[in-house]
Amino acid sequence: MNSSNTKSRRPVPEVKTGLFSKQEGAEAIINNVRHVHSSILGLNDPCWKATEASFNGTILPYPWELSSPKVLLISQSQKRSECIEGLVASTQFGQKSQNRERLKLVTEELLSNSFYHAYKNQSKQDKYERLSNVTLAPGEEVKLSYAENRNGLHLVVEDQGGSLTFEDFRGCFSRCFFRTNKEFAFDEKHSGAGLGLYLIYGVTTHLSIQVEPGKKTRFSVWLAQTNQFDPDSFSFNFFEE
Length: 241
Known about the structure:
Elements (H helix, E strand, L loop, with lengths): L14 E4 L3 H9 L4 E4 L7 H10 L14 E5 L5 H11 L1 H4 L1 H21 L24 E8 L2 E8 L6 H11 E4 L2 E4 L8 H9 L2 E7 L3 E9 L9 E7 L1
Parallel strand pairs: 1-2, 8-10
Antiparallel strand pairs: 2-10, 3-4, 4-5, 5-9, 6-7, 8-9
Helix pairs in contact: 1-6, 3-5, 5-7
């Protein structure tokens, strides 16, 4: 097998496959499951096949990851709004009112996370203060790329910090939501702690996170057209090199 598209074998992590709701998927994540695939196709789902291949060291793109994206580099936090409005205006996906707010929410949350939480100081605290105007240091630029087809939009936001861990992500879910009568509800006491990550999970159809500690965090998401979105067909994957 060609070494350019293979990696060393990884330990097989906890997975959840079958057909279930987003809430049940969130509960699985809270319970330390890094790979969640809900589909009527079960183990024959093409998205699951791509995830499964990664456990054997083979890199397969997900069916929803589109090629030839447009790429933007952003180094100033105050340019986020301009970037988001440009993304909305330049895509057919963003022109549809039923898609627009989802696209804005996901892009804003991902960019804010990259600017304010990706980079740490020597004390391992956030290097840049939340809500302040930030100009990233050389080499810290945030890369945003996107491509679309008639079925939806593929969005990628990548930072050069590599500080996100699965425990961070899992902790966000645990802090923001609790189990009540088999449904998730907002925890008013902690609703601001990591709520953005849960909202991203909630409005995207597919979400894949790849982390190279100290080097890179890459969020890759698929936003299906509203009229094609099935809330019981989705996936979440967290890969840590």
